[in-house]
Amino acid sequence: MLIDHVGAVFFPGEWTFRYIGRLAFPIFCFLLVEGVHYTHDIRLYMLRLGIFAAVSEAPYDLAFHGEALEFGGQNVFFTLLLGVMLLYLFERGGEWPVKVLEVLMFMWIAVILKTDYSFKGILLISMFYFLREYRGAKLAAGALWNFLWNNPIQQYGAMAVIPLALYNGERGRSMKYFFYLFYPLHLIILFLIIKMSGLR
């Protein structure tokens, strides 16, 4: 993600940065589903995502648009928040027709809110959730999702299945708040570098 953002801000014509960055979102979605499965309090999970979505919006807009509030697109935390809200509904039960309608509803909300990765982000989260117990199918679906885009850059995201295939289901070192904080902080740093260097 950091490599992707550095490329987007400082080297917009160098696509190598963007190719590498395409791996980030599928990994985020995969780990989001795992987080919902293992969390002791999904409501607290949603609250945490909501707080960091709000906190990150101004840094996101400053880094990519040069304005503190710009409503042309919302940061990725909003997509992840919608994803957890959807999974919360799934966890409460319901028949398949209802689940399909829930997916479509949240895809529509993502479009209306203009969240990062939009409705396709919600689709990927749903795919990882429903295929969670089917390792091969889950990885294949996660790879194929990257080819749903008109922009061929996202196809490089299919390589995310390599680290995902190495996931052993065990919890690593607890650093969740570091990663939550890293998102807005690195965007603020990018914005400050932009301002100090006079790039905008």
Short description:
By secondary structure, this protein is mainly α.
Give the biggest sheet: none
Count of β-strands: 0
Radius of gyration of CA atoms, rounded to a whole number:
17 Å
- In N-to-C order, the SSE pattern is HHHHHHHHHH
Word description of this protein:
With 200 residues, the protein is mainly α. 70% of the residues lie in helices and 0% in strands. It has ten helices and no strands. Helix 1 packs antiparallel against helix 2, helix 1 (2-10) runs parallel beside helix 10 and helix 5 packs parallel to helix 7 (118-130). It starts with a helix and ends with a helix.
Question: Could you list some keywords that capture this structure?
Answer:
single chain, 200 residues, mainly alpha, 10 helices, globular
Which helices and strands, and how do they pair?
Blueprint: H1 2-10, H2 15-21, H3 24-38, H4 42-65, H5 76-91, H6 96-113, H7 118-130, H8 135-145, H9 161-165, H10 176-197
